[in-house]
Structures
1.
Amino acid sequence: MTGQDADDYTAAEAGAAAEAGAAPRRGGGLARLAVALTALGGLAALGYGIDGLLSETRATNPHNSLRWLIAGVLAHDVLLVPAVALVGLLLSRAVPGPYRAVVQGALIVSGSVAAASLPLWRGYGGTPGNATVDALPYGRNLLIVLGAVWAAAAVIMVFRRRRSRRSRRTGPARGM
């Protein structure tokens, strides 16, 4: 197929889509380029990480890193995914609609913060005999952050409750 034939074919597809009531597709080539560049960038970052893992074996301990990778994948697939699905099911039944998104957001932020700070509040990486390496009370600080997240969620839910009561009291707006 020549370039002219491809252009005619695209124009014919757009015309058929317009007749069927569908919006013509635009930017297909640009979207494909963006996906290709994103994939290329991801592969480059992956290659850089693997190179660093294998070339700096004293600092990275590839055997230990492989164990952590396998354990992380298993923990994700066997524990985390079913737990999130169960919590989502329970939320859909227990939390009223106007507040569900707020609770979901607070749970997502809470889980992300707890997972990201896991090595800190579990005490991994510390040096025995050197208290200055892990000088902060990470467990307490995690609880403070989680308390702030849920306090913000509670404030948002209170505002939503007040707004819904106010809109019920005033009723629908009447036009003149």
Note: The radius of gyration is 26 Å.
2.
Amino acid sequence: MSDAFNVESLYREHGSRLRWIVRRIVKNPQDADDITQSAFERLLKTDVEARPVRDESAFLTTIATNLARNHLRHRNTVQRHSESVAHHYTDVFVQSRTPAESAMPSEAREQALQAAIRSLPPKCRTAFVLCKLKGLTYQQAAERMGVSSHMVKKHIQRGMALCAARLQSGDKPGSNTTGAGNDAG
């Protein structure tokens, strides 16, 4: 606890208001909670001897809104980047084909892909289906799943790797050589 600030008292007094402000900016309750907590962490790290704070409420509000705006800028950059490289995701499956798979009829390849997706851990499968098959953004999938957009991205990356490994090895859906059967998600 900082000597200069009684953070518990400030949190009780301003936490709900800050969370409300941040949530209106980022439009996601989980992100708003994280950003609000980060604002209080920044307050704790403030060197009040070098730079005295006259109004803690205004200072916290400024920190929180700046963090929220930075979060939005980052999220928009990630989304733009994701959209610009979306075509590369399908390349993972094309590159993972063995010569035998390339000779397979397209219906058999489709069945193998569906089996690989079904074999994914539940959270990976849900994130993968929502974003890669239904076209939702990471943020939209995160809101549906009740997790952060960062976790959605991790689930998709894991799902892509597991699907590619399963397709490359030609595993049957019931086998567990790639670790895809782990329900930890």
Note: The two ends are 36 Å apart (CA to CA).
